[in-house]
């Protein structure tokens, strides 16, 4: 129990503030004992992160990285059924200018589902995109960047 209190104390007194704080009413209110720069969410471009080498990650030729973003919204439709919109994007990079990108979108309101995958080596890329609509019709597109088909 003592260890948990120590951990809580350490986390609350450092850059790891209450993660749910920005979601409620208190996010818009001033916080006593904090400077204005601490009211913003933590950013990788924050000077505190410079010491970890994140700022030079893209310039380093020996770096592997993974980035992912996702969003999901849900609302009730006119008939009371849930309507869901979901989008997920990710990027993986490896030494030698190698990169893989993925993006998926799903919208229950329009019935649209879309997926794109891109493989990149330096300035060259092949991107494949597939889309399916509410009626089940599928469409596929390919994009070649600096490549001969």
Automatic annotation (TrEMBL):
GO cellular component terms, A-Z: cytoplasm
Keywords, in A-Z order: Cytoplasm, Phosphoprotein
Name of the protein this chain belongs to: Myeloid leukemia factor
InterPro entries found in the cross-reference section: Myeloid_leukemia_factor
Protein's cellular compartments: Cytoplasm
Source organism, top-level taxon: Eukaryota
Principal place of residence: cytoplasm
Keyword Oxidoreductase belongs to the record: no
Pfam families: Mlf1IP
Keyword Nucleotide-binding listed: no
Family: Belongs to the MLF family.
């Amino acid at each position: 129990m003592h260890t948990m209190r120590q951990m809580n104390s350490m986390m609350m007194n450092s850059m790891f503030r209450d993660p749910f704080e920005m979601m409620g009413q208190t996010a818009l209110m001033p916080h006593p004992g904090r400077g204005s720069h601490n009211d913003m969410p933590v950013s990788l471009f924050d000077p505190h992160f410079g010491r970890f080498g994140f700022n030079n990650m893209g310039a380093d030729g020996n770096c592997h990285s993974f980035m992912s973003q996702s969003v999901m919204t849900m609302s009730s439709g006119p008939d009371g059924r849930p309507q869901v919109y979901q989008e997920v994007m990710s990027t993986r990079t490896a030494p030698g200018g190698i990169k893989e990108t993925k993006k998926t979108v799903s919208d229950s309101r329009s019935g649209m589902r879309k997926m794109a995958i891109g493989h990149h080596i330096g300035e060259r890329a092949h991107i494949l995109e597939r889309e399916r609509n509410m009626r089940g019709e599928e469409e596929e597109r390919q994009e070649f960047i600096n490549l001969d088909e």
